[in-house]
Amino acid sequence: MAHDHSHADQANGRRLVIAIGITATVFLVEVVGALISGSLALLADAGHMLSDLTALVIALVALRISVRPANDRQTYGARRSEVLAAMVNGLILLGVIVYITVEAVQRLAQPSEVLGVPMLIVATIGAVANVASLMVLRGGKTHSINMRGAYLEVLGDLVGSIAVIFAGVVILTTGLLVADGIASLLVAALIAPRAIALIREALGVLAESTPRGTDVALIRNHVSATAGVVGVHDVHVWSITPGVNVFSAHVVVEPAIFAGGSTGRLLDELGACLADHFDVAHSTFQLEPAEHAAHEEHGHR
Q: 72 is in which domain, residue-wise?
């Protein structure tokens, strides 16, 4: 299992390095193209590309850190670094949104000359590069919040590049320069939901909220229905990083469990239940007799 996880991390690292190379190259091309054409939409897409590049670099650094083994100072290892990196990614995207929106509104009020041909050529190059990056990153997007964040950013950038292409066609065929500002606002609108979703997910993990899709009541019922269990309380479920869920609970058991030396069997059964049915990577159970549960000072949940 550890070998499979290590192999996946190595594969994700290679994906990120390739995507970084593609993104950095296209970012430089788009900046030069924006300066030549005078297109704000193309500059906005370059800004989005820069945020993608930053996000990919952060994701790669976080991936390298996250594979460090656990120690006495970081007992779960450095997996939480993935979440912190995702938060930074989301904040970078929000900054890009503000910049694009302000500049686009000014451009709509006072349209500037835009050269449609270089704008169209560079935007097309950007779209092709985004497709290549998506093909590279898609294999790791289901296993890591950072890989998913990087994939979604490049996907949004692809849509943004398509919007710039469309604006370039409109400018070439109709001469409507406001299409450049409109395309810029569309790029900002495309970025916003992804930034908010990424920040919300990262905040949920950092706040140790119940993982999305986890039914605590159902888990409690499963544990309570296990042979030998009388009750369960002080149930807690949280994530170290999305996909690495942790569970702890106090489990009240029948006297025969202790008397018959069956505590090991019960712990194995409870752990298997959590892993198989609820995808919990780490589970901790405090087995206790009824008389102990009755005099605990804090309230039961």
A: 2-206
